[in-house]
Design a protein that fits this description.
Elements lengths: L2 H8 L1 H14 L12 H4 L5 E4 L2 E4 L4
Antiparallel strand pairs: 1-2
Amino acid sequence: MKIEEHLRKNDMNTYMELSKLYKNENKKEKKIKLGDTIENLMGHDSYQRKGRRIKQRRWG
């Protein structure tokens, strides 16, 4: 028998308080969904060679 089952049978108030505390601690951070790949998002920081010149890349 688990502690959880024992508390649920014998002391419902304590079980509810502990379950509320546990739920608040276990919230996971959501991952941020990006609309593009990392390479394309960082593209404005990179440079390309055009002929003999080096130019900064554009977003598009």
